[in-house]
Amino acid sequence: MPSVVSKFLDKSEKAFSKNQSLLSTAVIGTALAAYAYKIGYPLVESLIFKPNRESDSLNNNLVKPNGIKSAANGEVKSATKKPNGVVQTHGDPKTNSAISKRNRLMTGIPNFNLAFILQFIKLVRIMIPSILCAETALLSGHTIFLFLRTFLSIYVANLEGAIVKFIVRKDPNNFVKQLMKWFAVAVPATFINSMIRYLESRIALRFRTRLVEHSYKLYFKNQSYYRVTVLDGRLDNCAQRLTDDIETVASTVSHLYGQITKPCFDILLMAIALANLVKSRNSNLLIGPVIISGVVVVSALVLRLVSPRFGQLVAQEAEKKGYLRHVHGRIVSNAEEIAFYNGHKVEQSHLRSAFRILTQHLEHMFAVKLWFVMLEQFLMKYVWSGTGMIVVSLPVFLPQVIRQVRPKKTISFTSPKQITASQAEPSTSQNSEISEPEDSVSERTHYFTTAKNLLLTGSNAVERLMSSYKDIVELAGHTARVANMFSVLEEASNGIYHKTVVAKKETIGDFEVEFNGDQPVAKGKVFAATHNEIILKNVPIVTPNCDVVCPSLSVNLKSGQHLLITGPNGCGKSSLFRILSGLWPVYGGELTTPRNSMFYIPQRPYMVIGNLRDQIIYPDTYADMINKQITETDLRKIMQMVHLEHILERDTFHEIKDWTDILSGGEKQRMAVARLFYHKPKYALLDECTSAVSIDVESNIYQTAIDMGITLLTITHRPTLWKFHTHILQFDGQGYWEFSELNCTSRMDLKKEKDELLLKPNSDEKTQRLKEINKELGEDDV
Ligand SMILES: Nc1ncnc2c1ncn2[C@@H]1O[C@H](COP(=O)(O)OP(=O)(O)OP(=O)(O)O)[C@@H](O)[C@H]1O
């Protein structure tokens, strides 16, 4: 069998021997052509198609959460989107325009450019707020250790040179001495290395803490967390930016500091050490550095030219990761509903699709990186090493060349020390004749090993500096996302919103939102109530999409006048609460509210992380409760008022549990009412907040609230609650409304008549009468 194979190989070798060189040339040529195409084509493409690409990618970024994105390719399908993102603004126009202008300067495709520098400076100011802070102290310590590390590298390079020299010289005594030194150096060297890593992690954590604190401050300022999700459409996934992106920025900046500082020290000190070494060999000081600098500069230019847009790629990756996390989050928070529906197929397909988008992007990134890294490695590993070898050989070969040209003049390879020694003892010429060749070889080995080590450290330093460029461009991607989040949060807290708006409905009434350029102006005036009154004078109800739901609403309500709000679905009842609470801008008219004396209870009650006590006192803390001199006995009474005493029989006030899952729908609603009784506000905005509570308990609750002196503004479809109200605001669903005193008896009669009519067989007369009654009751006409 082996003979058969060898014969076959023999034959094939003969067959291919003629074409072998041709074949190799073809393979190398094809590889080079493919490489040149891969590197060259994107360059040509970017030069020719650059403007279109940039605008495309910007558009894609703008429309994210509001436009509907196709799952597979991330294209926007929003058919009727406005050409410009509409900006909604309230607050001081001068400040707003200054903030917008500054923020506009800082946007664009993430790369190593002016926008990145501005964004980075902004983040650095947050991460290092002053010269005298913990971060500067840590950075100084880090710098000192990096510097010490470089010194040690030079010392070790020399030591290794000496060790090799004594091996070549066959001098065991000196070899052992140098080896002992080498082991002794290992102790501080390992300590310094560990300290460098420790300080890098500490700095990263400090930076992260600063950024997180700053972002939380902005996130919770003027309800920005609500505004950026509902009123503004620029932040696709705030959670991803607040967690992952901030963490990446902090760790990358901390890492880059060492990555750039250490090589700078290395290059500087290695250059000095190498210069001394070259000087000691009486060689030319200029040739080596000129050759090295030339090669490094050319390599850097080539890499800069062919470098893909890592910043943009990294920003897109973060965006896609954020989307995947968002889909996961939705499943976690709606697990029960999905399980009831058996909707796992749909949810799984959403997850898969989100994951596929991410993997497709990562594959694209890996492919782009492959070609770049190949070129990078070729230049840095092979071209530089070759150059290093040439430079190291120069002091060895050049004197030989010179000696051949000028044979009479002798240049020895001995060290300066030996030169002086040989000059001082001319009589020992016979000895030196024997020992000189051995000494000369060991000295040359010493020189070569030291120079090689120094050059290696130096070239590693330059390599790290150059690959830092890639890291900086990647950092630009994350920086852009974090800085952009800060800008949007800042603007949102100042009332500046950008949102892609879908086509408007027909204008209702004579109110139209006024635009300044592409910015709708919130012209309404808001006053703080002096006597706990609520007054709306010609206030329009306008949605974040700039749809006018009600053109002009006027209501005058005093404390003690309980208001019932009715109307068909989508007529603007909850929106009125949003305007009263200051969540939505006031686009016209005048609004007077006692904002701090109002307490809102939604239909879907929110359960906070914490124990049972925390559920009742929210948004107060335990310290607030103590300050208000409210005891657990008082809380127990409140629990009895809302008929939740049975929970106290099985649970204590102090156990932390997931109350969203533990409590039933009705129990959660009653818990929300318990909050109302704890806070005892002047006004309660009740948005169908007892729809899951039994009618008799609900009546009890309403009576208790009135007895406590709380004025009720209630949205409800239950006639049993009418009797607790004195006034009625009835919307007709067409933008019109009626505000009057509530005549409960006549309303009840109408309701009774409607119920009786519904039991009768269908007829034109019945339909006509039902229409009239529904209009009067402000109910949906079916
Ligand atoms: N965040 C939003 N962005 C855009 N439009 C919104 C937003 N919230 C509500 N709307 C729209 O505003 C209109 C009024 O909504 P609102 O919630 O006030 O209705 P509602 O009268 O409370 O209805 P329901 O009785 O069904 O609760 C609706 O057409 C709704 O689609």
TrEMBL record:
Residues 534-758 form the ABC transporter domain. InterPro entries: AAA+_ATPase, ABC1_TM_dom, ABC1_TM_sf, ABC_transporter-like_ATP-bd, ABC_transporter-like_CS, ABC_transporter_sub-D, P-loop_NTPase. Keywords: ATP-binding, Membrane, Nucleotide-binding, Transmembrane, Transmembrane helix, Transport. Residues 143-380 form the ABC transmembrane type-1 domain. GO terms for biological process: fatty acid beta-oxidation; long-chain fatty acid import into peroxisome; peroxisome organization; very long-chain fatty acid catabolic process. Belongs to the ABC transporter superfamily. ABCD family. Peroxisomal fatty acyl CoA transporter (TC 3.A.1.203) subfamily. It is found in: Peroxisome membrane. Residues 416-442 are annotated as: Disordered. One of its GO terms (cellular component) is peroxisomal membrane. Coiled coil: none annotated. CDD domains: ABCD_peroxisomal_ALDP. This is ABC transporter domain-containing protein. It comes from Dendroctonus ponderosae.
